[in-house]
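Ops channel
N.P.: pipeline sanity check, posting one input/output pair.
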């Protein structure tokens, strides 16, 4: 599942440790997802249009594994008028099946940029993963609070990609966000 492109911040990622003290707070027999509303700028024929837009939603899906690894993927979208959340979830679930992501096969080598890491301390969860952007993989950190066994709320994103001539900057950008993740069993 890797492609040609650059993987940024590998050194920082390798320094991250997985704190397994409260690993039982997160379910491992399914995935967590967050819905986001956005607009697709196209007309009813599917052509780009600066004047027309169609309301859509997309999901980010995260799978947690017992050994402190995580798989996170953004961008499964659907148009609201075309049904519901089920379309985006089906796309994510197809990827889970296609790449056998329900469990990590210890015998197969898995590139480290495919799987992220997570740690839990008390009710705080931190997820580190490489997000895809224009063919490259960029280290991202999500930090939040576990609300229940089947729900957590991400409050902060640390983005290791900076705008402009970001390669010359050394400090990652930290953003306050509000993303609620719900659990869906396989």
């Amino acid at each position: 599942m890797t492609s040609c492109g650059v993987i940024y911040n590998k050194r920082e990622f390798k320094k991250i440790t997985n704190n397994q003290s409260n690993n039982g707070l997160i379910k491992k027999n399914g995935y967590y997802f967050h819905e986001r509303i956005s607009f697709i700028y196209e007309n009813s024929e599917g052509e780009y249009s600066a004047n027309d837009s169609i309301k859509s939603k997309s999901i980010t899906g995260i799978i947690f594994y017992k050994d402190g690894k995580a798989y996170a993927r953004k961008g499964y979208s659907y148009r609201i008028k075309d049904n519901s959340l089920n379309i985006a979830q089906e796309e994510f679930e197809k990827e889970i099946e296609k790449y056998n992501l329900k469990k990590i096969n210890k015998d197969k080598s898995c590139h480290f940029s495919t799987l992220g890491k997570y740690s839990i301390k008390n009710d705080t969860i931190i997820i580190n993963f490489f997000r895809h952007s224009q063919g490259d993989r960029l280290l991202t950190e999500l930090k939040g609070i576990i609300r229940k066994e089947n729900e957590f709320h991400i409050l902060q994103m640390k983005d290791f990609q900076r705008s402009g001539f970001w390669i010359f900057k050394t400090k990652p950008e930290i953003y306050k966000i509000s993303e609620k993740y719900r659990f869906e069993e396989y």
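N.P.: looks fine end to end. The chain has two helices and eight strands.
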